[in-house]
Amino acid sequence: MSLANQAEREGEVPVGAVVVCAGEAVGEGWNRTITLSDPAGHAEIIALREAGRRLGNYRLPECTLYVTLEPCCMCAGAMVHARLERVVFGAHDPKTGAAGSVFGVLGDSRHNHVPLVSGGCMAAECAQQLKQFFRQKRDGKGAEGAPSPVTRAKQP
Ligand SMILES: [Zn+2]
Questions:
Q1: N or C: which terminal CB in the chain sees fewer CB atoms within 10 Å?
Q2: CA nearest 21: which of 78, 74, 84?
């Protein structure tokens, strides 16, 4: 959740992810799609990339990825490719969640690997963090609580 706060400080939707292997954090990420102009710059992808680099392996079979929000289709696909042992997520995402809420990408047995999935871990706290962010956006306030016409202009 503190990584999600880092995303929020950068004006991004607050989502944070960490990859843990043998009790050690080997990859961390927070949402950076705007900062990096990268449509794939989700917290989970960034954390997986760092973990792969650190471990010198594109497969992470003994790793668990923790993320504050249910992963989307793209991230769920990357998690299957990474052969993650386990995925733990916080809030469910009724709009784009790919761990059962909308799509069932993570648990689909047609994949050659299906990670264990635990959802709803600290869900209330994680959901609250996102709700608060979007509420502030709607109110035309930035992450620091100061009025931000830029933020308001970006609203559709
Ligand atoms: Zn994603």
A1: C
A2: 84
Q: Which of 8, 44, 50, 70 is catalytic?
A: 44
Rounded to the nearest whole angstrom, what is the distance from the C-alpha of residue 4 to the centroid of ligand 1? 13
Q: Whose CA is closest to 130, among 33, 10, 16?
A: 16
19/27 Cα distance (integer angstroms): 5
Tell me the whole-structure pTM to 2 decimals: 0.87
- 28 catalytic? Reply is no
Residue 99 token pair: 């761990």
Ligand 1 geometric centre to CA of 111 (Å): 18
Q: What is the pLDDT of residue 153?
A: 47
- CA of 46 from ligand 1 middle (Å) equals 10
